[in-house]
Sequence to fold (290 residues):
Amino acid sequence: MEQQGAGPVLVATWDFGPACVRAGLAALAAGGTALDAVEQAAWVAEADPQVHTVGFGATPNREGVVQVDAAIMWGPTHQAGSVAGLEGILHPVSVARRVMEQGEHVMLVGAGAHAFARRAGFPAHDLLTPAAHRRWQEWRRQYRDEPSHDTVGVVALDAQGRLAVSCSTSGLAYKQPGRVGDSPIVGSGLYVDNQVGAAAATGRGEDLMRYCVSYAVVAEMAAGRPPMEACLAVLARIAARDPKGTNMEAAVVAVDRQGRTAGAAMRPGFPYGVGAAGEVSLRQGGAVAV
Ligand code: GLY
Fold:
């Protein structure tokens, strides 16, 4: 069921979504903007060692190093900032925000992104927990596939009608060093048009980033579709074109300017958090294949 009514409204991907949404709503209640809300919401997943796909405690790359990607976008000015292959910083979404606000560039990667963060005052922080290190050692013994690419993606609409979107991820488990997914790519992992709405994607970056999923969802909303219809239309179109069809790992959350929300995936089983009208809930996304 889609949410009706204007902001404040937040959505966040996966079953950690409600906790993220609560943090975003708290940021708004404290006088923050939608931009503060999506940053604070992403912090929850970034700091939680039980979330193995984002930030602290995330699964490392195949060399045992946690490399993370994150991005943020602010509707009123259409500014964006992103980082990719960033190591050793606890809150990559905040580094992305700093890149955006510093204004000289949109995207920084690898050692340059780390140096930028340190110059900006972010402390160095080891993201590899002992538990993640043990899992990596076990993986090296067995080299089994580990499907874990549950990006935190957050969309917020504040009471002033301003939209923002963020995402943060460690990407594929045991990825090739230097591999970058969709999350830090504007239009792919996230997109906002303040006159229309915003979207954030999650799933396998190699699937998502060839279809600019977040931009496509916002474009469908611009053409007049409500968010759920827009998400499902984009996913169905991709499934119809791609050899993997609905086996693609692709899901998306969206909010439009009217405060209507949606979450959808190729298949059933995509949970996401919604905060609206003072209530936070965990919902199941719509699906292309039922
Ligand atoms: N969607 C996150 C990634 O594939 O890196």
Remarks:
- Residues 12 and 154 are 4 Å apart (CA to CA).
- The mean pLDDT is 95.
- The helical segments are 17-29, 34-47, 92-102, 110-119, 130-142, 205-208, 213-222, 227-241.
- The pocket of glycine is lined by residues 149, 151, 169, 171-172, 181-183, 202-205 (CB under 6 Å).
